Amino acid sequence: MTTKVGVGEYKYSVAVDWQTLPDGYEWSEATSVAVDSKDRVYVFNRSDHPVMVFDSDGKFVNSWGEGLFPRPHGITVAPDDTLYLADDEDHTVRHCTTEGEVLLTIGTPGKSSEYMSGDPFHRCTDVALDPNSGDLYIADGYGNARVHKYSPDGKLLFSWGSPGTDPGEFNIVHNIATDKDGYVYVADRENHRVQVFDSNGRYETQWVNLHRPCALYISKSQEFLIGELGAGMSVNRYLPNIGPRISILDSKGRSLAKLGDGFGFDPGQFIAPHGICVDSSGAIYLAEVSRTNMRNLGEEADDIRSLHKLTPC
Fold first, then answer.
1. Taking 80 as the threshold, does the pLDDT of residue 301 lie above it?
2. Is the pLDDT of residue 151 over 80?
3. Percent of the chain with pLDDT over 70
4. What phi and psi, each to the nearest 5 degrees, are found at residue 204?
5. How big is the CA angle at 43 (ends 42 and 44), to the nearest 5 degrees?
6. pLDDT band at 122, cuts 50/70/90?
7. How far is residue 82 CA from its own chain's centroid?
8. pLDDT tens, residue by residue, 178-220
9. What tens digit of pLDDT does each residue of 76-108 get?
10. Closest Cα partner for 132 from 179, 93, 77?
11. Contact (Cβ atoms closer than 8 angstroms) between residue 52 and residue 294
12. Average predicted confidence (pLDDT) for the chain
């Protein structure tokens, strides 16, 4: 029996064991996922093969990045199908071709700025591109509370943000995205909100009533898909209606749908949504840091699902 989540026009079939890995390949967990113009799926993951590429049917295409990424975190596809990859332990963002050739490295590999100094980078997490200029917005989230704007050639233009809960302040700048008009959306995870800025870093508004938003993706129809991480402690692990889940919002931040049947290991349930994207058919790909989340909850789980495909019904 096919598992379905959502309702109405936001109803999806959940694919189980969607992808096929070659013999000897595995991932401890998928941290993020991106799709290019040909619907090839790039899974950034914490294994010996950090970038695994699949076609839309889950057939393995190739892998690359071996020995280059100590702790993968975020992956973003540019309009020309090149990729930006943020590694929070290496403190770098690398711009790569679809075959893994490194075109540009921003940051010093293995060397961080001082904790909460505001200087790039201290465990950077994600990248978004300005649709008009091609400039980069880099979320510097685990050891800074900062967004940095760079030119396409890697020159730092300016930065904004500081620790706190007020508008323009952050408590873990996790994922970041831009819309067609150039507005910047920041998943301010531990403040349980998405903040919205203009291209100069000026605060516009915020969307609340989200629980630890991690993953963030804006579709071509300007619908916002947000992966909410859910419980961070065992005390609220099974608390109803806080996730983990996928929330779909409109361009004003109004809820359109919520996908997922709460915390669990069955199809249609989630553990730790962390990265999300949508292909040309409307299928949703969701990467989860499932093993890390279980360990944070005090449990070991070696053989655990970390990637979903949700296909529109």
1. no
2. yes
3. 99
4. -110, -55
5. 115
6. very high
7. 17
8. 999 999 999 999 999 999 999 999 999 999 999 999 999 999 9
9. 999 999 999 999 999 999 999 999 999 999 999
10. 179
11. no
12. 94
Do 203 and 168 contact (CB within 8 A), yes or no?
yes
Instruction: Give DSSP secondary structure letters for 149-201.
Output: EE-TTS-EEEEE-EESSSTTEES-EEEEEE-TT--EEEEEGGGTEEEEE-TT-
| Res 1: pLDDT | 55
Say which residues have a Cβ less than 8 Å from residue 219's Cβ, sequence separation at least 6.
Answer: 225, 278
The Cα 84–Cα 44 span in angstroms is: 11
Which tokens in the block code for residue 78?
Answer: 């540019």
Q: What percent of the chain has pLDDT over 90?
A: 85
Q: DSSP assignment of the chain, as one string?
A: ---EEEETTEEEEEESS-S-PPTT---S-EEEEEE-TT--EEEEESSSSSEEEE-TT--EEEEE-TTT-SSEEEEEE-TTS-EEEEETTTTEEEEE-TT--EEEEES-TT-PPPTTSSSS-SSEEEEEE-TTT--EEEEE-SS--EEEEE-TTS-EEEEE-EESSSTTEES-EEEEEE-TT--EEEEEGGGTEEEEE-TT--EEEEE-S-SSEEEEEE-TTS-EEEEE---SSGGGTT-TTS-SEEEEE-TTS-EEEEE--SBSSSTT-BS-EEEEEE-TT--EEEEE-HHHHHHHTT---SS---EEEEEE-
Looking at residue 64, its pLDDT comes to: 98
Greater pLDDT, 266 or 98: 98
> Do the bridges between strand 169-170 and strand 162-163 make them parallel or antiparallel, or are there none, so unpaired?
parallel
For 182, counting Cβ atoms within 10 Å of its Cβ (0-12 exposed, 13-18 middle, 19+ buried), the class is middle
Cβ(71)–Cβ(56) under 8 Å?
no
How many angstroms separate the CA atoms of 21 and 60, rounded? 6
Asked if 217 and 278 touch (Cβ cutoff 8 Å), the reply is: yes
Considering only CA atoms, which of 142, 226, 252 is closest in space to residue 190? 142
